[in-house]
């Protein structure tokens, strides 16, 4: 695997290094030793999968509030997504910056997000499946979220938003919750 830091502190792109022959290829997608050497979390406490029927679906922006730790490794295993990490950690050197990376079944990329960074994605193809590995359990009472179209973040989603859950529609603007995000 190759680990490439991004413009957001602690967010890392994880690329596969496939080994192939006439049958196809094989690649390691996670290895505790390699993640540890790269300074990334090595505990997997929970794994989840999300299926999305339509292109243009947006999920997010979400995170768990401190002290509920939940670093994530996000990978698209069918279809493609525009994956976004937004730094909402007030003490971070990249506070309020975001990074967007296309993750797809074809490119095999993953995005590693540190705890307390907001995450969201938009599906670029129908029938997209996203897999998550988290280093802490989901804690419903610790969930926070912000609007996908919040001007504080300036995210330029590549497709018109086709589908958004009622919960994601109801998240407040970041400025309204800035003190709570700390």
Automatic annotation (TrEMBL):
Transmembrane segments: none annotated. The record marks 138 as: Participates in a stacking interaction with the thymidine ring of dTDP-4-oxo-6-deoxyglucose. CDD domains: cupin_RmlC. GO terms for cellular component: cytosol. InterPro entries: RmlC-like, RmlC-like_jellyroll, RmlC_Cupin_sf. The active site is at residues 62, 132. One of its GO terms (biological process) is dTDP-rhamnose biosynthetic process. GO terms for molecular function: dTDP-4-dehydrorhamnose 3,5-epimerase activity. Belongs to the dTDP-4-dehydrorhamnose 3,5-epimerase family. This is dTDP-4-dehydrorhamnose 3,5-epimerase. It comes from Nocardioides flavescens.
């Amino acid at each position: 695997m190759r680990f490439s830091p991004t413009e957001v502190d602690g967010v890392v792109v994880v690329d596969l290094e496939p080994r192939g022959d006439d049958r196809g290829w094989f690649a390691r997608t996670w290895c505790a030793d390699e993640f540890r050497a790269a300074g990334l979390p090595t505990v997997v406490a929970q794994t989840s999968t999300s299926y999305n029927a339509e292109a243009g679906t947006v999920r997010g922006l979400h995170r768990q509030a401190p002290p509920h730790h939940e670093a994530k490794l996000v990978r698209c295993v069918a279809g493609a997504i525009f994956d976004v990490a937004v730094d909402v950690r007030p003490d971070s050197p990249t506070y309020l910056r975001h990074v967007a990376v296309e993750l797809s079944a074809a490119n095999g990329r993953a995005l590693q997000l540190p705890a307390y960074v907001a995450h969201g994605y938009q599906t670029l193809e129908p029938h997209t499946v996203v897999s998550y590995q988290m280093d802490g359990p989901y804690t419903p009472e610790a969930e926070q979220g912000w609007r996908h179209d919040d001007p504080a973040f300036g995210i330029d989603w590549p497709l018109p938003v086709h589908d958004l859950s009622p919960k994601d529609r109801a998240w407040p603007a970041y400025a309204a919750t800035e003190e709570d995000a700390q």
